[in-house]
Design goal:
Radius of gyration: 21 Å
Mean pLDDT: 94
Structural class: alpha+beta
CATH architecture of the largest domain: Up-down Bundle
CATH class of the largest domain: Mainly Alpha
Helix content: 40-55%
Distance between the termini: 32 Å
Bound molecules: flavin-adenine dinucleotide
Number of strands: 10
Number of domains: 3
Length: 409
């Protein structure tokens, strides 16, 4: 399996292997993954997507199947039960799943990237050995707890606190909008990375497991606009005793963990938008070929041609940018913050515009639940909010660029 190339190249003292990293001529490993994903999506994901969206239900069996295929630990080292692949492979996974079921894709992303990849990089050997095999197989469902009812974008102002008491930290606070917070209304997810303060604007990371005293499933967020096949919940920490052994890294390293993980998180969310745009383009092309008006296929009308052509150009531009950033992104270090922000800023809007264009090309049919594009349109909106709002990306990007204009190249 392909390793994290940039990291390996850096370790070996060489530059990245640009020649073998061609989006349109993938390595054998990436080509095999693409084929596995194509079959999985066609045979197992597509058929259940509309129903799980309608019923707002997480497909636990499909999640385990994704584990069998190695998709839940795609970037995790093989020694810990993962596929040991790179950021390009992660992007492939989330683009492919999101051509069909972005809601299921989001549940996989929260587990495989926000939790599992995060632990693989920021945990110690004992934590990795104990948790990762269960996470990569899908036996345990994981998630990440950053957002709070009063604090989202302004993350350093979080209120969840961890206070040392004897042999444990007492964790108190509430996290909200947590993907995989539960499996259903009654059942808490299995394991979470929770960010909490251990001092004045000092954040640390903790592993919190189902069954710990005082750890409860709070409100379920029902009737979401989109991403309805993922379960979103509030989680309550009522003085949870978290053993010292469950702290990731040192006290105060939480902000670093967050920053390391945000790059791959934003890039894979951008990949979700690519999947949405790709599918919307395919649907609108099919429809424009079939549908007739005024005695002609609607593909003959200039305004329809504009929707198709603009969507294609934007999709290709976003795709090139996302994959190009993926091949430069190290899974274990920061360094691509600007491009991770910018790819998500751009691709999220491309995905939403593509879904909007597809609905327009399909006319009344586009508005109806029988057609996939209205579901994709609803799902696409999340990508302008989750993992950083558009405005957060504007803020971060302009700050970095104004400080160092040489970044533009
Ligand atoms: C379906 C779903 C799943 C999610 N999954 C998770 C998860 O698994 N784990 C997790 O921790 N979180 C999760 N989130 C939370 C998500 O990351 C936050 O909603 C997001 O970061 C925004 O925070 P907020 O909702 O508190 O909005 P706020 O931060 O309150 O923002 C409100 C508005 O103010 C704007 N704003 C805020 N600050 C500024 C500024 N400085 N300049 C300009 N504008 C600003 C924002 O852009 C936005 O438009 C999820 C959210 C959703 C909807």
């Amino acid at each position: 399996m392909a390793r994290d190339r940039t990291q390996r190249a850096v370790e070996e003292g060489a530059g990245p292997d640009w020649q073998s990293l061609d989006l349109f001529a993938p390595t054998p490993e990436h080509a095999l993954l693409a084929e596995t994903l194509r079959e999985f999506v066609e045979r197992e994901v597509e058929g259940q997507a509309a129903e799980h969206d309608r019923d707002e239900r997480f497909n636990h069996a499909l999640f385990r199947r994704a584990g069998e295929l190695g998709l839940l630990g795609v970037t995790v080292p093989e020694a810990h039960g993962g596929a040991g692949m790179d950021a390009i492979a992660a992007v492939q996974v989330f683009e492919a799943l999101s051509t069909s079921d972005p809601g299921f894709g989001l549940a996989v992303l929260a587990h495989a990237i926000l939790f599992t990849q995060n632990l693989a990089v920021n945990g110690n050997d004992e934590q990795r050995g104990r948790v990762l095999p269960k996470a990569t197989s899908g036996e345990w469902i994981g998630g990440l707890c950053m957002t709070e009812p009063e604090v989202g974008t302004d993350v350093l102002a979080m209120r969840t606190r961890a206070v040392r008491e004897g042999e444990v930290y007492r964790l108190s606070g509430t996290k909200t909008f947590i993907t995989n917070g539960g499996i259903d209304e009654e059942t808490l997810g299995d394991v979470f990375i929770v960010y909490a303060t251990t001092g004045e604007r000092e954040i640390s990371s903790f592993l919190v497991e189902k069954g710990m005293e005082g750890f409860q499933l709070g409100q379920k967020w029902s009737d979401k606009l989109g991403m309805r096949a993922s379960f979103t919940a509030e989680l309550v920490f009522d003085g949870v005793p978290v053993p010292f052994a469950n702290r990731l890294g040192e006290e105060g390293e939480g902000t670093l963990h967050m920053m390391r993980n945000l790059e791959i998180e934003r890039l894979t969310l951008a990949a979700q938008a690519l999947g949405i745009a790709q599918r919307c383009l395919a649907v609108m092309i099919d429809y424009a070929n079939e549908r007739k008006a005024f005695g002609r296929p609607i593909r003959d009308f200039g305004q329809i041609q504009r929707y198709i052509a603009e969507t294609f150009a934007e999709y290709r531009a976003a795709r090139s940018y996302v994959y190009d950033t993926a091949r430069r992104l190290s899974l274990s270090a920061t360094g691509q913050r600007v491009d991770a922000d910018a790819t998500k800023l751009f691709a999220a809007q491309v995905g939403k515009r593509a879904a909007d264009a597809a609905i327009q090309v399909l006319g009344g049919n586009g508005y109806m639940g029988e057609y996939v594009v209205q579901r994709l349109w609803r799902d696409a909106k999340l990508l302008e909010i989750g993992g950083g709002t558009l405005e957060a990306h504007h803020k971060n990007l302009s700050k970095d660029l104004c400080r160092d204009p040489s970044i533009i190249g």
